[in-house]
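Data card: per-record layout.
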Amino acid sequence: MVPRACRWCAGSAGERGDLHSDPGAIGPAPPAWATAGRRPVGRSPRRRGGRSVTNTALRVLLDATAIPADRGGVGRYVEELLHGLVRQGADLVVVCQARDVERMRCMLPGVEVVGAPTSVERRIVRLIWEQIALPALARRVGAQVLHSPHYTTPVLSRIPSVVTLHDATFFTHPDLHAPTKRRFFQAWTRWAVRHANALVVPSLSTRDAVIAHAGGRPESFHVAYHGVDTAVFRPVDGPERARVAHDLGLGGQPYIAFLGTLEPRKNVPALIRGWVRACRQLPEPPALVLAGGPGWDGAVEPAVAAVPADLRLVRAGYLPLGDLAGYLSGALIVAYPSVGEGFGLPVLEAMACGATVLTTRETSLPEVGGDAVAYTGLSDSEIERELLDLVNDAPRRRALGVAARARAEEFTWDEAAARHLAAYRAAVRG
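The structure for this 430-residue chain is written out next.
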């Protein structure tokens, strides 16, 4: 087990976020000449840095500089992946923001960690550094593969490249993203599809949507489902649940839990309205707790303002990481009525806690939930109906909780790491 217990490794729900919630990723799209359809010369070398590509342990440079200051979903993915790669015996070099160096070294003893210049904290500087200095660093450390874990990657590099594309909602649900952000991620996704040696995606749904909208060959994509840290996300007993509920000001009132950034695709306004409608038909209505980042969904505040005074809605904000198991496993229902996801990590984390989960059949979510969760449509009336069915059916809730925990055990970061290693080997083979 990789050591995690040091003050630099502590996290919180404020560091969750979805994988695109960081505006720091926004910058220039790849230049037009770089998207002309021609793979740069030398993208599939047979030998780099004096190392044969037939070695079992390829030397991988992973660019963690895209992790924002609050870590966000990108940070969660990168850090859990790194732990998994270390357990798999990967030969790693990690480059990260200067602010993250000590924490990374604490998390990954024995792994070479390189700090980028402090100026890279500025979004535009990071993108320029990525194009100019990152390929030079890859050569200097003898990397055989460069893994760019968040869409962008050097346009001109002779090192075989692997790029992670987290979801395709910039194509499938463009209205849910700001225009600048949408154009940025669409452009870099298209570039990666045409030029990267291998692509990693977190679901079959994402793979299929990227191919439909940006092209690419199915064999270039490696599906690596996310895992879940069962040391953090697990069923907990009554006292821990009661402590978290007390801290939220709930006392003994049952509650419906939401966890995630309040962004448009999370469909939180419909959840609020559906909950209000359901409560009107319940003699003892549950509270609704919204935990996570404030986000940028302008429709949330009007929906909150319209909640009747006799119902309890709690804006919990960020929760400490240590409170999440109590929060999720103590909920009557965990509701996540998303319009679209690349994977749906909050659903998996709630499942690992043995929670009764209500989500949608949109995009990747059925790949995560399978038959172990309840499903709803996107409208407030559909959410109302499914909430009522679950609130009034305790045996079904218990059965779903048991099934959810069993299914969550199938998703591990070790398996995700193994699939990334397969992508690295494929990239080197060309």
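Known properties of this structure: The longest helix spans residues 123-140. Residues 14 and 302 are 23 Å apart (CA to CA).

See the next section for split statistics.
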